[in-house]
Design goal:
Helix content: 10-25%
Oligomer: single chain
Strand content: 25-35%
Distance between the termini: 218 Å
Length: about 350
């Protein structure tokens, strides 16, 4: 770098000399700055999945209880295969640029199903996916074929129990969806047109119906409702007679008194029979005499002939007339011989007087 400093012949009174420096290369006065540029190496983002992905992901939703199920991958693993589940709702899809959220109860689990009831808490559509892990090896994500909405749940007939408490009906339910409403219909048997409908939230689980008539048979049925277009079938009618508040002890008292009275009567009868005096017994317990036919002790039973069956014999006297003596002389001889031959067969005796 060449710089010139020419002398100034004219000096100031203060003795200060002004000098100007002229350089052939003006950039020589600028500071030298070293710039280091780091060029990152070219990388290719390509994940190679060493483990097959789970197959056939499906959602089972009954009574607002949502369970995700899948099939294990067709691969051998020296240890247990672990599974993790993620979901993506409308908020994650639109606001959070399509991010996924881990299902806290379904991370690194061993079974092939996951309960997502607490995670899917709105009526929006949800995308779901699951992947497998064997040691340090991960599989690709397997997504549900279509978004799931909890409004697609299946409602079953509610499990209803009906009992009487005093002068009221007590209707209870088991395993109701948390956000559901139960319609309970109560009517007198044979008068369903006058039925009364009670709406009960699922959290209540028990309905108490009072101010009913004692001794009347009431029928009850119920139906679960989530939305106007999402309802279950109704239960079969359950009918029972309503008893009063004091019916229980009345029934027990009646049974007890009846048993005591019957026991006393039986005791008195058996005591009377075992301690009865013969004369008194004959007075109170009259013995009918046996008929004559049953008194016969002889084995030879003689059958007496009746008056009609007895042999009847009567003497007949025949007096011939004068005129007939002449005409019947020859016939008499034949008649006499005939009567003599048949006399043994006739029930009576015939004598001829000549």
């Amino acid at each position: 770098m060449d710089c010139e400093s020419p002398a100034d012949d004219d000096d100031d009174d203060d003795g200060l000399a002004e000098r100007s420096v002229h350089c052939k290369n003006p950039s020589a006065l600028k500071p030298q700055v070293a710039t280091l540029t780091i060029i990152p190496p070219l990388t290719v983002s390509a994940e190679v999945w060493m483990l097959p992905a789970p197959g056939t992901v499906s959602m089972e939703s009954v009574n607002m209880r949502h369970t995700l199920r899948w099939r294990p991958p067709q691969a051998s693993c020296g240890t247990s295969i672990l599974y993790s589940v993620q979901f993506q709702g409308e908020f994650e899809l639109t606001v959070q640029n399509g991010s996924w959220v881990d299902a806290h109860e379904c991370q690194r689990i061993r079974h092939t199903h996951c309960d997502l009831t607490s995670d899917l808490g709105s009526d929006s559509d949800y995308n779901l996916q699951v992947r497998a892990q064997c040691g340090s090896e991960l599989s690709a994500w397997t997504e549900l074929s279509r978004p799931f909405n909890r409004r697609d749940t299946v409602l079953t007939v509610p499990e209803m129990n009906v009992s009487t408490v005093g002068g009221a009906l007590q209707v209870s339910f088991d395993k109701l969806p948390h956000t559901a409403v139960v319609n309970v219909t109560v009517w007198k048997k044979g008068d369903e047109l006058q039925a009364v409908v009670y709406r009960m939230p699922a959290e209540q689980k028990m309905l108490h119906v009072a101010a009913l008539q004692e001794g009347v048979v009431y029928c009850v049925r119920a139906q679960t409702i989530l939305q106007p277009q999402l309802q279950s079938r109704s239960t079969d009618p359950h009918c029972l007679s309503l008893t009063g508040p004091d019916a229980a002890w009345k029934r027990a008292t009646t049974v007890t008194v009846t048993v005591i009275i019957m026991a006393g009567v039986l005791f008195a009868v058996f005591w009377s029979i075992s301690h009865c005096h013969p004369d008194a017994c004959q007075t109170y317990f009259h013995k009918e005499p046996l008929p004559d036919s049953l008194r016969q002790t002889d084995l030879d039973i003689q059958i007496q002939k009746t008056h009609q069956e007895a042999e009847l014999c009567e003497r007949i006297t025949m007096v011939p007339s004068v005129d007939s003596e002449r005409q019947g002389s020859k016939a008499d001889a034949g008649l006499m011989s005939l009567l003599e031959d048949r006399s043994s067969e006739l029930p009576f005796t015939v004598e001829f007087v000549v």
